[in-house]
Amino acid sequence: MKCDLENMIKGGKIHKKVEEYIKNIIQPEIKLYDLASQIENKINDLTNYEKQNPLNSGVGFPTGLSINNCAAHWTPKINSIRKLKKTDVIKIDYGVHIEGSIIDAAFTYSFDDKYKNLLEASRTSTDLAIKLARPDMLLSEIGKEIEENMCSYEIDIDNKIYKIKPVRTLCGHEINKYEIHGNKLIPNIYMKDYNKRIDNEEFFAVETFATTGNGLTYEDNDDCSHFMINYNKKFDKKDIISNSKGFYKLINKYYNTLAFCDRWLIGKILGTIKLDNNKINKYINNLEKTGVINKYPPIYDLEKESYIAQFEETIYINEKKTEILSQLN
Q1: Is the pTM of this model over 0.90?
Q2: Do residues 204 and 315 lie in contact, with contact meaning Cβ atoms separated by under 8 Å?
Q3: Which residues contact 163 (CB under 8 A, 6 or more apart)?
Q4: Rounded CA gap, 66 and 83, in Å?
Q5: Does 245 lie in the same domain as 169?
Q6: CATH number of the domain that 288 lies in?
Q7: Cα 148 from chain centroid (whole Å)
Q8: Radius of gyration over alpha carbons of the chain, in Å?
Q9: Are 1 and 25 in contact (CB under 8 A)?
């Protein structure tokens, strides 16, 4: 089901206010757990989140605070003590939803101006993709332009020159109601066999990832914190292991098909049980085995000493114009 334009506009204005808030509170040595919590609390405050009606509005997905060679899907766990260093390059990716219509946008932040070209490579690539986004546009052609633009950049970091490349395995995506990833992709590279086109009145998250590494990635399955009910698979009651049915109902109640993270579940009551890390992991693993829940581990460039930048906007495309919903005031 398509997102509601009016709700997307509301969410976009809130997302922009939260960006301004983040830039006022971010500082070296801030605990990443505190930063994520403050961002999510601000979103809930501005969207009038109600615990009694958790699916009406609120946080669209766990706040991504991916640092240096981590591209995406890292959010602090409940016991995380990690702090933001002055030399870090951080991707801040957060979502706002109003009745399931999701604004998904991100920006990269650094305290050090030496990373300027890296950030610019992603920012200009995202802007270019948005300019090209119009009805009937071939999505692979947008990917081609993104790749060419990004590869035209290089950066000098501590007297060493790095060619900037796109992260090959990540891409922009269509957004549907309560579904962060729709059926269409906007690749960061040229994919000649990808023949899908943009249609009128569609919503996309346009995101590009620029790296000083080689653009190839791996997933850290031992540090996964992002999860989501698999809305692309039809399953029935027998797919849900009996001792995990209550947990599945809890996820459905609070998040439905929106992404969630384990730290949000700590302390919630399931029957007579208070959820802790061990119980949450057990239930999630049970539901993953039958494809009911998908895991989304952190994604890293293979070159561990590399840096990645990301800029992302949510757009609405119609015959008259393409509107950047995440930049509305």
Answers
A1: yes
A2: yes
A3: 151, 154
A4: 12
A5: no
A6: 1.10.10.10
A7: 24
A8: 19
A9: no
The pLDDT, as a whole number, for residue 235 is: 81
Scan for tokens 């086109």, then name that residue: 197
- pLDDT tens for each residue of 46-58: 999 999 999 999 9
Of 258, 306, 244, nearest to 95 by C-alpha is 258
Looking up residue 74, the CATH number of its domain turns out to be 3.90.230.10
Structure tokens given for 312: 């992302």
Instruction: Give residue 289's domain range.
Output: 225-295
Number of folded domains in the chain? Answer: 2
Of 150, 151, 81, 68, residue with least CA distance to 112: 68
Please name the residue that has the structure tokens 């561990």. Answer: 304
Place of tokens 């997307």: 8
